[in-house]
Amino acid sequence: MSFEFLLLQVLNGLHHGLLLFLVAGGLSLIFGLLGVVNLAHGSFYMFGAWLAWWASGVFGSYWLALPVLLVLVALGAFGLERALFRYIYDKPHLVHVLLTYGLVLLLDEARSLLWDDDVHGLEAPPPFARSLELGEDLPDYPVWRLVVSGFCLLLALGLWWLSSRTRFGAAVRAGVERREMAEGLGIDTPRLFLLVFVLGATLAGLAGALATPIASVYPGLDAQVLILSFVVVVVGGIGSLSGAFFAALVIGVADTLARDLVPAFAGVAVYLLMFAALVWRPEGVLAKRN
Amino acid sequence: MFLRSATRRNSVRQAAASDASHESFTRLRNLASRWRDGPAPLVFLLPPLLVATWFVPDYDLQRLAKFLIFAILAMGLDFLAGRGHLVSLGQAGFFAIGAYSFALLAGTCDGEPLLSLLLGMLVAGLIAGGFACLAGVPALRTRGVYFLMVTLALGQMVFYALHDIPLFGGSDGIFVCASPRAIEVLSLSGSRVYYLMTVASFGFAVLLFWCLRRSFFGTLLGASATAEVRLAALGYAVLPIRLAAFTLVGAVAGYAGALEAMRFRFVNPELATWHLSGLLLVMVILGGRNRLWGAVLGAALVIGLEDLLVYWFPDHWQIGIGVLAVVVALFLPNGVLFFARRLSFRRLGVWLVRQKESPLR
User: From B78, which residue of chain A is nearest by alpha-carbon distance?
Assistant: First the structure.
């Protein structure tokens, strides 16, 4: 295994981590602000991916499909928040788990009823449907992966701006830190909850749609992403966007490299990392210390 | 240390009782709750289960055994989540560890078949308990939502370990390689023996969790959830209490896993899937949490419903479980037993107390 190959895998890991950040960032904010354990967050990712595959076929273009699927995912999240989630904010975690576990099953069956249980692939959209040739013994590198990584970085910057430079972000951070105080200052928390929920779900859907042209879509996508995002949130600390960002990068790289270096423990590596992090700092490695 | 032991115990009991869900019971309601939370219903439950051995066809015995195994698992999870507020989503991991341990160990002992099977089950439980103890040290440093996510990751880690490490046979799994004589016990003609072993295990599990709930340890666990600071102030270390409960319940899950391995004589990584852990939580809440029989009732309802659903909609039966989970979360968050109590026990109790305490008597 050459040094260049490892470098390439690190790049792949960063790509993986950036996509993971889009899912885990929303999950972390929803935990931090709403206090809801949302097991169904991975299902938004899954729907984003499957809708991207389906809508690209229907409209004949990925670029047309993208806005349509984002609107669909956002509408779905809006409906779920209004119909179900807002009634359980004050209930214990056990109830959150129960409701969202039921939603995971229902959304997975909905996926199965709408489409099928097969594996599907999608070509990278036109201007980026090329690969860079890197050399004799290195695999070609798809341009789409670079584009997505760049776009995710831009989005992360945008989220940072939104959270630290706008009134909305300030309100969200206030809600995460001291909810009663924020309410006392006149912040309309139910509306804030709705906005954050829909934003988080849409980001997860977007991540699914962006991943589709390289990775294929298949059943079981939801659990895979959900549990990795949980690991990211545990390592990064609840409610912290920057924590989620750095944790996602570390987890993404570790997950990718472990597949090359220790194939027998590929699936386990990330979780061992998480346990190490827990022993070191139970409140999240990057979380603020009280 | 400075308080006398009995005084300290009373303080712990008071600390535990400060939880809003522990109300002060009237004598009659106390009696009703002793019925509800004691092992007495076993008297009515065991005879039909035993009689079923000779009158129910093999396939249905298998389904009954599945219910009993899940009831054992759910009772354990209820002790953790209901009493100790340790909502674990990783119980399937310990279940699978027990099942795999049994599958790998069953062949190593070629003595009296029943005894060797029993030994295998106990060792499987011990191994799962050992893993729970190891994993519990870092996992129990976390609280609430973190604990939930960490245990979910734990279960997933077991899944991948079983899936990726060559010894465990990948996604195909491995066969339970018991000795020929032991296989004879488990074979179709001997499946009644297996069923009776499951019923006995269930009975023991009920007694075990009943004792644990009544014991001082059970009180300590409850207090560690609801009055952690007061417990620490009384000189108790909270982590060992939680770790002991987590280890014990992990061991029970491993034992149940060994029973499950015997049921199919075959194990695969699907035993560790997180859907199983989720289903266990549905059982615990549906039945009524922190109630000895709540978990059993929940297991019966969920397994029964699953059977019907698989029969009616073989391809999309999970819709029914999903709807059930959502409905329970929204409308029955305290479970069926609580609902039933509101309907009958409370009113009956109040009525009886009034009869007894009326000044005209």
Answer: A94
Interface touch A234/B163, C-beta < 8 Å: no
Domain spanning A3-131+139-280, CATH class:
mainly alpha
**CATH code of the domain occupying B26-353:** 1.10.3470
Average pLDDT of chain A, as a whole number:
86
Query: Contact A199/A22 with Cβ under 8 angstroms?
Result: no
From residue A227, alpha-carbon distances to A130, A215, A216, B157 in Å are 32, 18, 19, 10
**Residues 75..114 of B with a Cβ closer than 8 Å to A: which?**
81, 87, 89
For A121-162, what is each residue's pLDDT tens digit?
887 788 777 777 777 777 777 888 888 899 999 999 998 898
What are the domain boundaries of chain B?
Answer: 26-353
Q: Are B235 and B1 in contact (CB under 8 A)?
A: yes
Q: Contact B146/A234, CB-based, under 8 Å?
A: yes
**How many interface pairs between A and B have CB atoms less than 8 angstroms apart?**
142
> Structural domain boundaries of chain A?
3-131+139-280
> Is residue B102 a contact partner of residue B262, using CB atoms and an 8 Å limit?
yes
What is the rounded CA–CA span in Å between residue A63 and residue A225?
Answer: 24
Residue B24, pLDDT score: 46
Distance in Å, alpha carbon of A275 to nearest chain B alpha carbon:
6
CB A172 within 8 A of CB A29: yes
Can you give the pLDDT at residue B32?
Answer: 61
Q: Is A113 on the interface with B (CB under 8 A)?
A: yes
CA atoms of A195 and B92, how far apart (whole Å): 35
- Give residue B316's pLDDT band: very low, low, confident or very high (50, 70, 90): confident
Yes or no, beta carbons of B325 and A87 under 8 Å apart: no
Q: What is the mean pLDDT of residues A108-124?
A: 86
Q: Does A88 contact B329 at a Cβ distance shorter than 8 Å?
A: yes
Task: Give the SS3 label for residue B39.
Answer: coil
CA B278 to chain centre: 13
